[in-house]
Amino acid sequence: MIASMLILPLIGAVAAPLMGKKSGKLRGICLRMFTLVEMALALGLFLGVLQGKEFSLSLPGMCGLDLSFRVDGFRGLYALIAAFMWAMTAQFSKEYFNHGENHGRYACFTMITLCGVMGVFFSDDLYTTFVFFEIMSIASYPWVAHEETKGAMRAAATYLGVSIACGMVTLMGMFLVWHEIGDLSFAALRANNGNAALVLPACLTLVGYCAKAGLAPLHIWLPKAHPVAPAPASALLSGMLTKTGLFGVIAVALNLMGENQIFGHIMLGLGLFTMLLGAVLAVFSINLKRTLACSSLSQIGYITTGLASAVILGHHGSLAAAGAVGHMINHSLLKLLLFMAAGAVYMNTHTLDLSALRGYGRGKKLLHVLFLIGALGLMGVPGINGYASKTMIHEGLVEIVHEFHGVIWYSVAEWVFLFAAGLTTAYMLKLYICLFWQKNPDQKLQEKYDALNGRDMTKRSAIALILSAIPVVILGILPNQLLMPLTRISAHFLNHHEQGDVHFFAWVNLKGGLITLVIGTVVYLFFVRKVLYKREKGYLDRWPKGLDLEEIFYRPVFCRFLPWLGCGIASFFNGIPDSKLIQVYIPRVISGFLSFLDRLPESRLFTRGLPGVIVGITRVFDELVDHAMLVGREIFLVNRRELRRARNHNIFTYLASVIAEGIHKMIRFLLPNRWLPHRAPTDMRYGTYVTNAISFGLLLCALGIVAAIIYVFIRTGT
Amino acid sequence: MLLLICGLTPLILGGALPFLKIRQRRSRMIYVVAGTLLTSLLCAVLIFSEKEHTLELFRVTDLLTCRLHLDGAGKVFLAVAALLWPLAALYATEYMRHEKREGNFFSWYIMTYGAAILFSAAANLFTLYIFYELLTLITLPLVQHERDKASIRATRRYMLTLIGGAALGFIALIGLSFFGAGDFIPGGKEIAGGSTWVLWLCMLGFLGFGAKAAVFPLSRWLPSASVAPTPVTALLHAVAVVNAGVFAVTRLLYYTVSPALLQGTWVQSTMMILSMGTILMGSVMAVREQHLKKRLAWSTVSNLSYMLFGLSMLTEKGMAAGLGHMVFHGLMKIILFFCAGAILVQSGRTQVRKMHGMGRKMPLTFGAYLLAGASLVGVPPLPGFISKNYLETEAFSLGGALPIAGAVILLMSSVLTAIYIFTVAFPAFFMRLNPADGEGKFQDPGAAMKVTFVVLCALLIAAGIWGGDVIRYLNGIAGGILS
């Protein structure tokens, strides 16, 4: 069953464009048939679940890891709602896509997205959720880019960028969770519920899902993408794709982070902020679909607030959790209706500008009724579905106020909630009165609009719209009989108790609704009509031009600064091997050093300097010896007769010379004559002096050694 | 013996091509395709035969012996080459019509196949080194095929980096052989003592063999080599040659020395930091680059370091994930390059900015590009997701600062990959042709290229479905190493 529901859209994705090659009609039939069959299957699945049957499927080894699927009450319900929405938009598409091109592409990616959405809702572990979530994110890109205008391409780029970047953060968080607990199945998450070590991984995991859900500050893609997408796609984007994000939020927030106060408060803050921001943006918006898109933002804020209250209240929070789920269901259905109604307007007028659309709906009874139902539902008027779920979320907040009695911040939160709900009334009144009550100042245009009365929609589109409106009304009239059972079967997935019946139409609850309606009417009358509207000019765009988070923060940072920084660093590193330092300077230093070494043997230092020094030193010694010789000769080798004549000798030198001469004579006497050198003449050359002197020195040395040896013998002898 | 025949067949076939004097272009093309097919068949026989194929070619000393042996990891490398070569040859038959000196080109092209086969079957570091050099030298004429200034410069850089790198590898080879390591044993040799030396040698070897895998300081050659004809950039510089670098590093880290020896040392940290840096640098440069083929080349640089990052984790799953990415990346990147080549041939456009709206005119080409690109980004049912997922999982289960930083970098790189892939693919489908870019008279390429696209895309999808089995097989190979 599950497998067939996953594969069927893929077959459709191939079949529809192929059929489209033959004729557009066949493609339309193909698309409608596939979505209807899918819806029938989903209905069967849901009924099966209601009877207590278990559906599960696991595909080990797919995508490298195991994919596992399971259907319980909540997931079966949401699969049914998704299939219903797809079937209704497919019916509506026939007329909407009468003109333009690329219908094959639209059909193909719509079906792939359906497969992704089904996969997300059936998934039984975070890994499977992520796999299908990514398929869905990428496959829904062509929706946003469908019109191929500049604005559409820009919005689509933002959408894709946010999806992919935040998806990667989610993957990171998932790995961290896996690192901590070793398993990503929802059962394992529930087993680790409230683990304080997992706050950071859980927050990271939530980034991708929050971005898809449109939670501030990651909402930037949402108000841009919805208006440019074709109306059926906007209905699905707003009604269903944001809910897949919320599916991930529920899985992580209620199953993994239940009762974690820090986490709950972060979410509460984000939820309230988103709620208020969306509502304010919607009040200021002058574009029909943009208003609805900003309204989606605000409603996502409600749902998140409900979930956050459930986390904060822990096991007392079943009312808030039920409210959140109820509001998810209601919002899906409401946005389906409203966006298709907006599509019905757009396909006739080809404009979304509120000023130009004034008076379009005058006299179009069917559209009037349908739009009114949607508007009242969003406003939270008792009797239409939005009221019940809003009341429950409000009750959740009130419980928090009671629980943390005396903390002013929670009371502020409650008033923020009421104020945002009031703004919802204001912007829906703005749309409703603009479309159906005001008269267009341009007479011709008004006549043109009036001429369309009765044939502004084909029967098929009208039926699709009526079918979408029916559940809105029924759920609203019988909240305890229908909406509450739906929240009760979701309780298991929400990890909360089943919530009993609530007295929706008791005065306490009606009072809250009434306050918001009063606030809304006051804002409408005194702000929208007085400040944002001039009769001649129509609706004025009073929102400050520069105040766009995407333009003032995300794009400059992520499209200018970070690429600049990253490219700078990368090209710096990349340039290192090619830089002058590596290519020129270092080789130059090395080769310089080498060639220096190479030339060293030929350098002046080696050829002149060093030899010069050595020669100088040796010459010094040479001279020294010569001079020593001369001095020696002066001292020792003088004639006795000469010496006597000389007055400058003292007795010691005289004696020394006498001894020396005596030795000389003794040697002459002892040795044969030819062994001895001739007595040197007084003017003999230095060379001869040297030899003489050295022989003399050696002689003295030998004598010294003999003396030393004798001394040693004597010492040892004694 | 079959091993040698298998390796020599393309060398002989390629070498004979210039002497055969084939006049007709058609018969030459048949010769080329049939030749590569024949070789691939021989390879298939090799891969699927149960017998151990071992062969000693010659012996320099006892330490340096040239020996061939085909084991599990070698079979994986060989299988990728054998699968893609005939397809690339088929693609080249149509592509090379637009280039000069076809005969010359195909001769070298076939011979490279032989070098790759012999490389995959090397049984020790010495043999690996010989065929590593052979692979470098045989591809030189292919890189400078155009013989213009750019290609000559590219060739110079190619030669300098790869032969210089091989020199570092040679130092490692000789040094390790003194420690008795060199033969490829699963799990490598336990070297006792002298570990400082061994660490330095491994570092040198990683850098040297990593040159072919374009690791950071030696990465510039790859983008500049993209001036070569597309079949060369597609098959050699995205698959065969660069995979040879990754494969050689695998052999070094897991088969020559024991991975346990390197675990937790500065060598492992350095390898990780280098590969992480290269991943980021490659991706960022790819985003910056406007020339399509160069952009893809930078992407290859980045993806090769994914594999090196996997290998540098030094665990069996890290190795399996790294080699898995090698297999899958080869498949994805060859498609991407083929698309770039088809775009170049059909329209003469190389700049990314001029490709707006071309997807409508060339739906098959850009469809294949989008599919392979989505896989490279890591869109789930496609194989790129599987191998990246395994890399991430392994990095996280390893824990520690560096592996987790690496995992974060892998994710960042995935975002960058999405940017550089989708900024080509999406405007091609969703925007209009800009008249300022010139005439819009072009269409999908001819039959040969179409067939390659279809077959490769079918292979890619099949890899997505049975990718888990590939990784399991690789795990089986790696399991023998670190048990």
Key terms for this structure?
heterodimer; A: 718 residues; mainly alpha; two-stranded antiparallel ribbon; 28 helices; B: 483 residues; 2 strands
Description:
The complex is a heterodimer of chains A (718) and B (483). With 718 residues, chain A is mainly α. Among the domains of chain A are: 262-537, no CATH class; 603-717, no CATH class. Chain A is built from 28 helices and four strands. Chain A has helices at 2-22, 24-50, 73-96, 103-122, 126-139, 141-144, 150-181, 186-191, 199-213, 222-228, 231-255, 261-284, 288-313, 318-349, 354-357, 365-379, 386-403, 408-436, 443-451, 459-477, 479-494, 507-528, 549-575, 580-599, 604-636, 640-645, 651-670, 686-717, and strands at residues 55-59, 67-71, 533-534, 538-539. In chain A, strands 1-2 form a two-stranded antiparallel ribbon. In chain A, α3 (73-96) crosses α21 (479-494). The radius of gyration of chain A is 50 Å and the shape is elongated. The termini of chain A are far apart. The model of chain A has no long low-confidence stretch (mean pLDDT 84). With 483 residues, chain B is an all-alpha fold. Chain B has helices spanning 2-16, 25-48, 72-95, 102-120, 125-143, 149-178, 195-210, 221-224, 230-256, 259-262, 266-288, 292-312, 316-347, 358-361, 363-377, 383-398, 401-430, 447-479; strands at 54-59, 65-69. In chain B, strands 1-2 form a two-stranded antiparallel ribbon. In chain B, α15 (363-377) runs parallel beside α18 and α16 packs antiparallel against α17 (401-430). The radius of gyration of chain B is 21 Å and the shape is globular. The mean pLDDT of chain B is 86. At the A-B interface, α5, α7 and α23 of A face α11, α16, α17 and α18 of B.
